[in-house]
Design brief:
Blueprint: H1 2-19, H2 30-50, H3 88-109, H4 114-119, H5 126-133, H6 137-148, H7 154-157, H8 176-182, H9 187-197, H10 204-209, H11 214-224
Helix pairs in contact: 1-2, 9-11
Protein name: Reverse transcriptase
Biased composition (Acidic residues): 40-49
Region (Disordered): 19-79
Length: 240
């Protein structure tokens, strides 16, 4: 009888090991549970008949089966409300997206920077850095002043000296738009600018924000002589 029970236990272990792929891991499988239950009931009947010798056949195989945790779903959560830790790359991407969204909301609701908003629709960021990466310090300074409105034109000077508002042509206030697009004093440089861009009436936003117009805009500023203190002609290198 003892030999038969030991053989039954060895056979049960073998079946469990085969079901787990050769690894000593217990996993819940209904078909194995039913077979193990039937074997256990048979052995129990035999053990009751043998009296005190029943303890000889007890092994660790009678421990409750351990089922693996359920796989996570696409949102990074485990079923039954348990959470999995995020991967580092996923967490970093989520943080960057949240920061960009917060910066965009701050930019859209800000009460300052009206002049810059007039020439660009996107908040300063990587595109702004690329826009200035190929410029010299003087060129970048001049374009930044014209984009923000804090420049040497009469419209800005009038905040401190009201009599400096009008343009030297005597027609209109000296704003960025008047200087670039309408002032008769700079008709010749403007003709060169329009011919270079192949446009009849470019917008101020295009002239000051589009990288395709940067070189022609800098040439216009140099030819006009209006900003001699920051004059720096653009490079003729095609790669710049």
């Amino acid at each position: 009888k003892v030999g038969a029970r030991l053989a039954a236990l060895a056979d049960r272990r073998r079946r469990l090991r085969q079901a787990s792929g050769g690894k000593r891991v217990l996993a819940y499988r209904p078909e194995l549970a039913e077979s193990c239950t039937s074997d256990s009931s048979d052995d129990s009947d035999e053990e009751e008949g043998e009296g005190g010798r029943a303890g000889l056949g007890r092994t660790s195989s009678t421990r409750p089966a351990i089922s693996p945790p359920p796989p996570p779903n696409s949102s990074g959560e485990i079923r039954h409300g348990r959470l999995l830790p995020r991967r580092l790359s996923a967490g970093w991407s989520a943080f960057q997206a949240a920061q960009k969204a917060m910066w965009a909301r701050s930019w859209s609701t800000s009460t300052t920077g009206a002049q810059l908003r007039a020439v660009t629709s996107s908040p300063p960021g990587l595109a702004f850095t690329r826009y200035h990466s190929s410029l010299s310090r003087r060129q970048s300074t001049l374009l930044t002043q014209l984009r923000t409105g804090a420049c040497d034109l009469g419209a800005y000077k009038a905040h401190f000296e009201p009599d400096r508002l009008m343009c030297a042509c005597g027609g209109e206030p000296e704003t960025q738009e008047h200087f670039f697009l309408h002032c008769p004093l700079y008709a010749s440089p403007r003709a060169t600018l329009l011919a270079s861009l192949r446009l009849k009436s470019p917008s101020l936003a295009y002239l000051l924000s589009d990288p395709c117009a940067t070189k022609a805009t800098l040439r216009f500023l140099a030819d006009s002589g209006r900003f001699d203190s920051l004059y720096s002609p653009p490079s003729d290198d095609p790669s710049s």
